[in-house]
């Protein structure tokens, strides 16, 4: 078959439909990505059912827009998943591998809807691989288990509202309804069946739960306890009038037995049509879970908001915050001017109004910030697949544990931390975790453990990646830096181990014995530090030989605002992010020394180079330090520190970060600007780049 790559494609959807399709496809693909890896280790029915639904939803949406390849591939995946659901095939590694290969192709195919160009992905081979795994080993469930009658849990008290009807002669019927397996809209038919039941009686409880059915979550099987005057035959006739209803089975339930659990109708395995078999698993779920939670209703309490709209709102709130600060300054100025005038009542009203405006602005800013927050789960959920794939390539066994998935941070930060986390995890698996043989020899379990934990502290989020592997080889790092001419042998040998482990962030430095497609080129951790620094974040690493390594990332919760120490230098106001500031002191209290012709600040047993902040940022105007003294701000980035000379300390402030784009030109050391309360511009300092250049910026004595 000729390769169709590059062929223009057409789909049956407009711009609004495209947006909906992409959002749904992304959601379902991410669910599959996370769940398929779990399937290999936890083949429980609820998980299998969740995966099947995701594949089924993708099949339906892709078929609706006319994406035949995507629909065909998801159908093949659905077939395999159905075999797993029915216990005809165990979810072994080859099954999961085939499903993951299909998933990878689905990502590419979904993107074709955006590009409208054929990517060249041939699904026939993938579908053949999926069908081939169906001929694999023994089923996970014995046929007898599949055929066992399901048991439904009746929540306590659900019949209480109907006792009056029962006492007046109404009966209780257990009703089991099967939708035809070739029905294209089973959720709608389930909803119609529920409505029909309510027209002939009162539904005490149903499976799936009413909220699930009403939100479109119904599938090919449903059951209910119906309080009604009608006979079973009349119930059956009424419900069979609904289109696509294939079978209705009823049985009376004595009031005394309509509590606890109710045994449903047995389905013989050989009589189970494809769709109907799904309900067998669904019903087994009901044994443990009872009626399904109101997932659909919960979802309806939130709405999707375009990120551009949120960004627009955030910009407007930023302007409001700036005006609030300006108004507060005007109030203070007026208060000083009018202190002796007879305008106290007017001033009181003005102060009350500005105070109220400040409160409202703060609350509005907080609400907008919260609306931009997403749980870090959206990033962590992608990691199990990554760890699995890298571990397979490296011939290792690794368990990934995650915690703090509900920790929230700004969407813009979430988009930026994915790549650093990927690099750290790849290194942890490739370099940190030992092979099963090495671990056994070291008295460790064959399977290594990597834990990723997220938590909030003040206005920062912390991400910890810890492994129980071999730890960082500091001797190898010392040898490498000497070989590459980055440091003298004497300096490398003299450096303490906790400093040496930070060298893994040096560009081009790797202790890997060979370069593979996983790692070994020495660029991964360098990229990590570069990305984290660009976000005004910090990254630290600690390691214990034989016990493992921990990397901790500290990031601001949002990139839209930041807490900063405001300073002035040579007539310009600068904002230094507080995350970098370790100490601020006057020149009179500073322990200043001259070393090698340069001014150095002795601070906590370390000598820090002193840098004139204005000069370091390209201010070449004549510079005269205040005669009544200046100030020194000590800042750090990673394990490096420097002291910056400024004229005045103006206090701490939440600043709204504004991009200056091309206005900054080629000036280094600045990440943006902020509008101050008096309307003037303040420049936000990029401490990372300045500290990196500290040697060149040191002030001569």
UniProtKB/TrEMBL annotation:
* Reaction equations catalysed: ATP + protein L-histidine = ADP + protein N-phospho-L-histidine
Matching PANTHER family: CHEMOTAXIS PROTEIN CHEA, SENSOR HISTIDINE KINASE CHEA
Identify one Gene Ontology CC term for this UniProt entry: cytoplasm
The chain positions of domain HPt read: 10-113
Q: Which residues does the record list as Phosphohistidine (modified residue)?
A: 56
Localisation per UniProt entry:
Cytoplasm
- Pfam short name (any one): H-kinase_dim
Question: What's in the keyword line of the UniProt record?
Answer: ATP-binding, Chemotaxis, Cytoplasm, Kinase, Nucleotide-binding, Phosphoprotein, Transferase, Two-component regulatory system
Q: Does the keyword Nucleotide-binding apply?
A: yes
Function summary: Involved in the transmission of sensory signals from the chemoreceptors to the flagellar motors. CheA is autophosphorylated; it can transfer its phosphate group to either CheB or CheY.
Task: Give, as one word, the top-level EC class.
Answer: transferase
PROSITE patterns given for it?
Answer: CHEW, HIS_KIN, HPT
Q: Name one GO biological process term.
A: chemotaxis
Span of the secretion signal? none
Q: Which CDD domains match?
A: HATPase_CheA-like, HPT
Bilayer-crossing regions:
none
EC id: 2.7.13.3
A GO MF term: ATP binding
In its UniProt entry, what is this protein called? Chemotaxis protein CheA
* Domain CheW-like as annotated: residue spans: 561-696
């Amino acid at each position: 078959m000729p390769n169709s790559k590059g062929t223009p494609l057409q789909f049956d959807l407009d711009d609004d439909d495209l947006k909906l399709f992409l959002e749904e496809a992304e959601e379902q693909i991410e669910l599959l990505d996370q769940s398929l890896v779990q399937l290999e280790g936890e083949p429980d029915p609820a998980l299998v059912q969740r995966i099947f639904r995701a594949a089924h939803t993708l099949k339906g949406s892709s078929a609706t827009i006319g994406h035949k390849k995507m629909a065909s591939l998801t159908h093949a995946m659905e077939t395999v998943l159905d075999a797993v659901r029915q216990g005809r095939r165990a979810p072994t590694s080859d099954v999961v591998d085939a499903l993951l290969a299909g998933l990878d192709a689905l990502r590419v195919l979904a993107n074709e809807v955006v590009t409208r160009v054929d990517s060249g992905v041939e699904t026939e081979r993938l579908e053949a691989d999926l069908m081939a795994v169906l001929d694999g080993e023994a089923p996970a469930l014995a046929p007898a288990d599949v055929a066992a009658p399901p048991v439904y849990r009746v929540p306590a008290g659900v019949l209480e509202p109907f006792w009056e009807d029962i006492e007046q002669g109404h009966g209780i019927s257990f009703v089991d309804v099967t939708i035809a397996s070739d029905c294209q809209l089973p959720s709608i038919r389930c909803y119609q069946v529920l409505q029909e039941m309510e027209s002939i009686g009162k539904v005490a409880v149903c499976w799936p739960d009413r909220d699930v059915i009403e939100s479109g979550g119904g599938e090919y099987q449903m059951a209910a306890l119906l309080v009604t005057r009608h006979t079973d035959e009349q119930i059956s006739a009424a419900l069979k009038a609904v289109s696509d209803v294939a079978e209705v089975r009823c049985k009376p339930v004595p009031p005394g037995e309509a509590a606890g659990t109710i045994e449903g109708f047995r389905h013989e395995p050989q009589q189970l049509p494809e769709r109907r078999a799904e309900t067998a698993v669904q019903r087994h779920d009901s044994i443990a879970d009872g009626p399904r939670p109101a997932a659909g209703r919960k979802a309806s309490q939130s709405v999707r908001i375009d990120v551009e709209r949120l960004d627009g709102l955030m910009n407007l709130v930023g302007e409001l915050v700036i005006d609030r600060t300006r108004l507060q300054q005007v109030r203070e100025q007026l208060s000083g001017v009018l202190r002796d005038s007879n305008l106290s009542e007017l001033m009181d009203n003005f102060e009350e109004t500005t105070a109220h405006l400040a409160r409202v602005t703060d609350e509005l800013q907080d609400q907008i910030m919260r609306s931009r927050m997403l749980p870090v789960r959206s990033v962590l959920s992608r990691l199990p697949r990554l760890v699995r794939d890298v571990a397979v390539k490296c011939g290792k066994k690794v368990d990934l544990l995650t915690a703090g998935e509900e920790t929230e941070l700004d969407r813009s930060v979430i988009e930026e931390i994915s790549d650093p986390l990927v690099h750290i995890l790849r290194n942890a698996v490739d370099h940190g975790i030992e092979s099963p043989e090495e671990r056994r020899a070291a008295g460790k379990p064959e399977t290594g453990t990597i834990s990723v934990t997220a938590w909030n502290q003040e206005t920062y989020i912390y991400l910890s990646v810890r492994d129980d592997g071999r730890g960082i080889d500091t001797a190898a790092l010392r040898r490498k830096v000497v070989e590459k001419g980055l440091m003298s042998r004497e300096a490398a040998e003299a450096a303490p181990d906790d400093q040496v482990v930070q060298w893994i962030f040096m560009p081009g430095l790797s202790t890997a014995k060979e370069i593979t497609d996983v790692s070994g080129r020495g660029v991964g951790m360098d990229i990590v530090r570069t990305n984290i620094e660009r976000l005004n974040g910090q990254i630290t690493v600690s390691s214990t030989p034989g016990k493992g390594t921990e990397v901790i990332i500290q990031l601001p919760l949002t990139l839209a605002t930041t807490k900063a120490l405001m300073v002035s230098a040579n007539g310009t106001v600068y904002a230094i992010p507080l995350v970098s500031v370790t100490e601020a002191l006057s020149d009179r209290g500073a322990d200043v020394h001259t070393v090698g012709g340069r001014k150095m600040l002795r601070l906590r047993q370390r000598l820090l180079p002193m840098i004139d902040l204005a000069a370091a940022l390209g201010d070449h105007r004549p510079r005269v330090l205040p005669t009544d003294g200046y100030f020194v701000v000590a800042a750090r980035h990673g394990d490096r520190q420097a002291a910056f000379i400024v004229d005045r300390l103006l206090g701490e402030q939440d600043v709204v970060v504004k991009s200056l784009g091309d206005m900054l030109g080629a000036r280094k050391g600045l990440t943006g600007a902020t509008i101050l309360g008096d309307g003037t511009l303040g420049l936000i300092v990029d401490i990372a780049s300045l500290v990196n250049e500290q040697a060149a910026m040191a002030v001569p004595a």
